[in-house]
Amino acid sequence: MPQPQTPVGADAFAARQHQPQQQRRQEENIGRYVLSGAAAFLVVSAAVSLIALVWDRIPDAAKVGTLGVIAIAMVGSGMILARRRQQQQVAAATLTGTGGALGFIAIIGAALTAGLPSTAAFMLMVVWAFVLLLVSCATGQFFTAVVSTLGAMVTIGFAASQVAAHPAQAPLTWMLIDFYVVALAAVAAAAPRFTSGMRLAPWLPSTSMVVTATVLLIGPSQRLLAQPQSGIVLLTVPCAVLLVQAHHSTRLLAVAGAGSAVMYEWAAVGIVQALAVLQLGYAQNVSASARNGISVIFLALACVSTAVLLPRAKTPVWLRAVAPVNLGTVVGVAGAVFAVSTDLLLPAVAAVGLAAIPVVRLGYSAPVLLLPIMGVAALVAGLAPARSTLLLTLLAVLTAVALTVLLEALLAPPPPQSGESADRATWLAGATWVLAADLVLILPWVLDVLLARNGGGQADRMPAPLLAGAAALGLTGLGLFTARCSPRSLLSGGRAGRLEGAVDLHTPLRSTPPPSAWLGDTLLTALAAAVLLRAGSLGSALLEAPLLGIALALVIVGGRMLLPWLRSTGVALTIAVSQSLALWWSVMILTGASAASLLVTGVVLATGAACIVIGFRLRATTLRHYGLTLVLLVVFKLAVVDLAGQNSLSRILALMVAGVVCFGLSLAYNHFAQEQAEHGAIGADSAGGLSPAGRGGSSYPR
User: Fold this and answer.
1) What pTM was estimated for this model as a whole?
2) How many CA atoms does the CB half-sphere of 593 hold within 13 Å?
3) Contact, 392 vs 346, CB < 8 A?
4) Residue 368, SS3?
């Protein structure tokens, strides 16, 4: 028989009717639980008020015993009601939760008033917390598990107060607390398997994580670290338990469909770890070795946790959410460890590098920039007075550079439907520049500080600028100032010898130099000036000569990036001025001559002559004019400055030599100008149009 067809729009109408029903049901549940919580609060308040009213008339044992009986009766009644009346689950949860809270109040009251030993009270509270957790599993009431968690935190607070009152009991008490944390974590981890009827069963391990985090944050570090070996173990056990719980809870919540909560839970675990490192690391009256030891153990535990996250053949969905958050948490823990001691920069960098591996294998390139940025922390570590710290800092910077290249090598293709494809070039370019800053600026600076702390003389002031200049020259030759350069392509030599915007030194691909060429020339010239400043303060020609050579090489290599556009007026002046100034400065440093000396005058005259000759050879008009300007300035200096006041034989000879040089330059200038005019190579061709030089191209010999 043909089935009756559903009218068009019937499904949509049914769905619209179903939505208000769901909303009403959710609102009713919220109302029930809010009112039940209010009822529990009022009942507990009434009990406390009644006890306060007749407190002095009731014997202590009767007070405690009555509260205990009421607590057990309420928990039992709630269990019976939950099993017999399925419609009264909210009321049953209210009874068990209220009874659980009264049970903890009774135990604490027995310890404070009835003479119950603190150890016995602690054990009773532990047992009662486990009872409530089992009741929660048996009745399927998550509210009871929450009360159990609150009671467990009260238990921990009670134990901490006893440690404060009796410091000698700290090791024994905290050992019992660690056993309690381990047992509670194990029970909470196994509970979801036996409570399939509880809708919030996957959240049961999270309740015990709150207790573990509390223990981790309130540990009596000052008292326990008085005996470092046992104290470090007692204080780090909760951290290890918390990380194991995080891994288990993450998988449980992901299977239950609560993937969005996984990231927040993982981030909370990382924040607790970082706070614990800071609290333990800055404990008063604790040796530096104990603080460093516990910080390294916390960092090692974070690394072990990260190693479990390394992607496998098939990456689960939850790992894609957790891996970036885990990187952020490890950065926080590493930063806390570095704040405790600057000696720990190297393990901090290594830990962040390990945490970045799962992220780059998922196809995200931002961690490639993160590692060289950590090298900037060397600026803080470099202020430390210890030589061992500075040596470790140098090693940390080199490790950051090596891990940057490794991370790019492990970088997977961009994930689909993400902005990674558009942003990857930016991330990698940023990583390249920060890496270059590590090698050219930070590493030489730390070396300079190390050598200065070594107590040496002027010789110890030479290696750092020499290293900076050599690193800048090497990175420039490897292609630092080229587009789309990444750390791996840079350090592997994949872009060595390339010029941005030009095929070679004679063939530009565009009419003007690219911004990267201008930037490269500016930065290298500035670094050359810094090197020359250091060279001028050494006072020894043997020490100055290597730095002068590096400085001149920096200026020449910077001008090389602009050389294909030499006929441009701005380019020609930039190259000529920067290189001639560097040459004159180097001569003055090496010889000790002043700017007004005849030696410097002769060098300037020789520079002008060279610029004129080279300008004709390369058909660069601006360069010729610059050479002529230098020659005229020298003539003016000789005629006005050097002859003022006296007429010595040396100045007469200098004038004669300068006159002969100027005459020779005049003949050469006239010869080359006539030769180029005959060949039509200066500005216009035979048809009256622009020559290749006039169009911004290159027509000088190759």
Assistant:
1) 0.77
2) 16
3) yes
4) helix
Rounded distance between C-alpha atoms, residue 489 and residue 495, angstroms: 6
- Burial zone of 430 (CB within 10 Å; 0-12 exposed, 13-18 middle, 19+ buried): middle
pLDDT tops 50 at residue 495: yes
Residue 190: Cβ within 10 Å count? 13
- The 10 Å CB-count burial string (b at 16+, else e) for 98-129 is bbbbbbbbbbbbbbeebebebeebbebbbebb
Contacts of 137 (CB under 8 A, 6+ apart): 145, 191, 194, 195, 198, 204
How far apart, in Å, do the first and last CA atoms of the chain sit? 92
Q: What is the pLDDT of residue 650?
A: 61
- DSSP 8-state class, residue 6: P
What are the helix (H) ranges across 410-514?
A: 420-437, 443-453, 463-477, 487-491
pLDDT of residue 651 exceeding 70, the answer is: no
pLDDT of amino acid 183:
81
Structure tokens at 413: 């293709």
Q: Where are the alpha helices (DSSP H) in 362-438?
A: 366-374, 378-381, 387-409, 420-437
Q: Over pLDDT 70: what percentage of the chain?
A: 76
User: How far is 447 from 441, CA to CA, in rounded Å?
Assistant: 10
Work out the pLDDT band at 400, boundaries 50, 70, 90: very high
Strand partners, 499: 502
Neighbours of 423 (CB within 10 A): 14
d(CA 638, CA 604): 12
Q: Among all chains, which residue has been given the structure tokens 């027509």? A: 699
User: 424-444, pLDDT tens digit by residue?
Assistant: 888 999 999 999 999 999 999
Identify the sign of the CA torsion 177, 182, 185, 191.
negative
∠283-271-176 over CA atoms, to 5°? 60
What does the pLDDT average to over 671-695? Answer: 49
Half-sphere exposure of 406 (CA within 13 A, CB side): 15
- For residues 476 and 252, give the distance between their C-alpha atoms in angstroms, rounded to a whole number: 52
Mean pLDDT of the chain: 79
CB 451 within 8 A of CB 463: yes
Asked if 341 contacts 380 with a C-beta cutoff of 8 angstroms, the reply is no
